[in-house]
Amino acid sequence: MTAHFNHTIIASTDPDGSSRLYRDLLEAEEAPSWGPFRNLTIGGGVLLQFATPPIEFPPQHYALLLDDAHFDRALAALRANGRERWADPQRSRPGEINHEHDGRGVYLLDPSGHYLELVTRPYV
Q1: Containing H/E element for 73?
Q2: 69-103: b or e for each residue (b if 16 or more CB lie within 10 Å)?
């Protein structure tokens, strides 16, 4: 059997706020939550779990593939909410998107400082 991605825990200083951002941008589904976890599901039944760990954690990078219409909705929401965003991970092109890999992409920081990358075409 080929491996499939099932779930990940996203370390969060604010699990409720982080799960709301991801839910809204990714149009994710609420999933039953338990214990310290605030849970969402995205395409393919992948479970995203948000929890505050008992240690400090470094920022991570999460790249998510959206179709063009979904990307347009997410970008409109980012603009409407005045959320900072960049065309590059170095944050040298504020307010822009990129057109790499024959698609479009944008970077933003979630409430815990993790980089979210929204792209319309996979890299490979």
Answers
A1: helix 68-80
A2: ebbeebbeebeeeeeebbbeeeeeeeeebbeeeeb
Residues 6+ apart with CB under 8 A from 98: 87, 88, 104, 105, 106
Tokens coding 33: 């939550």
pLDDT tens sequence for the chain (124 residues): 899 999 999 999 999 999 999 999 999 999 999 999 999 999 999 999 999 999 999 999 999 999 999 999 999 999 999 999 999 999 999 999 999 999 999 999 999 999 999 999 999 9
3-state helix, strand, coil in the chain (%, to 5): 25, 30, 45
Global confidence as pTM? 0.94
